[in-house]
Write a structure and sequence with these properties.
This protein is α+β, with helices and mostly antiparallel strands. The chain is globular. Helix 1 crosses helix 2, helix 4 crosses helix 5 and helix 8 packs antiparallel against helix 9. It is 36% helix and 20% strand. About 15% of the residues have low confidence. It starts with a helix and ends in a 10-residue tail after the last helix.
Length: 295
């Protein structure tokens, strides 16, 4: 599954970002950028079971920047703590199957506690990176959320950034209870997944505002903000330019700030520094009501 996961995320021929983290302490145990399948497998076998193992779901360039959209993943997490762990995971998988009935061509996987639906991008797919997170969020809210809403024990992970990390399938999920992540269902014809990418692309025409630049990760650094946000917040001189690019005024403020926080947390920022950084983004780029929470 490790090899197939690498290929199904569309990473063959791309550099890919690998990340292992101790979930109890939040400490990064290993972070590596590799360019071939054998290196992915060797690294994963070395760190498997020692921490939670993730892989960037989009292909990278040699400098670590996201180079192109290589996959779309829908992350389904359990929210109903009343059911058993088995029941909650089963409902996540059932929601995934329902998605695939409407949008075929993807793979269904158990992430350990929840489920992933993964669509590999067509080889010729070439969409502007800076616009894609907003388009993906709009597509998921329009087409996927109504399906998932029928499953009360399931929620959609709200992160849509190009830099997000997903479970490297075939490795052990270190969330309690420890469980092997694995593929559960593969498509009869993966090329059917093109319908997902064509549908996302059509949103650019239906909602012109979403096709405008948001944050270009190739010019601002990792996560769109890694180069412009330091431990104390936005770097000097970057606030006004960044403020013009952030989609906060379009009602995406909450999910956007969650995405920024998640990206920075995965890069190793501790709570205090992360809080200051996200607050700086909020204060320079977002509507001021409601106020940003303290602490």
């Amino acid at each position: 599954d490790i090899r197939f996961s690498y290929e199904y995320y569309g990473l063959k021929g791309q550099w890919c970002q690998l990340h292992c983290q101790n979930l109890e302490t939040g400490k990064t145990l290993s972070r590596q950028l590799v360019s071939d399948e054998s290196s992915v497998v060797e690294w994963a076998r070395n760190w498997n079971g020692k921490g939670q193992i993730w892989v960037g779901h989009n292909g990278r360039a040699a400098d670590g920047e996201v180079a192109k959209v290589t996959s779309v993943t829908i992350d389904l997490d359990p929210i109903d703590k009343k059911g058993t762990e088995h029941e909650n995971r089963a409902e996540c998988l059932e929601a995934g199957r329902a998605i695939l009935k409407v949008w075929p061509g993807g793979a269904l996987a158990s992430s350990g506690t929840g489920a992933l639906v993964i669509y590999t991008a067509p080889q010729d797919y070439d969409h502007r990176l800076e616009a894609f997170p907003d388009l993906l969020e709009a597509w998921i809210q329009t087409h996927i959320q109504p399906i998932v809403a029928k499953y009360p024990k399931v929620r959609l992970d709200p992160l849509y950034d190009n830099e997000r990390l997903n479970k490297l399938l075939g490795t052990i999920s270190c969330k309690s209870p420890r469980r092997l992540s694995k593929f559960v269902l593969l498509p009869n014809n993966a090329s059917d997944g093109r319908g997902v990418f064509d549908s996302i692309q059509r949103l650019a025409g239906q909602q012109p505002g979403l096709s405008q630049p948001v944050v270009d990760s190739r010019s601002t650094g990792h996560g769109g903000f890694a180069a412009s946000i330091g431990h104390a917040g936005l770097a000097s001189g970057s606030q006004s330019d960044a403020a013009k690019l952030i989609p906060a005024a379009r009602g995406l403020r909450h999910n956007y700030l969650v995405s920024v926080a998640g990206t920075l947390r995965r890069k190793g920022l501790e709570y205090e520094a992360l809080y200051k950084a996200v607050r700086a983004v909020y204060e320079t780029s977002c509507e001021t009501s409601p106020p940003f929470p303290d602490g």
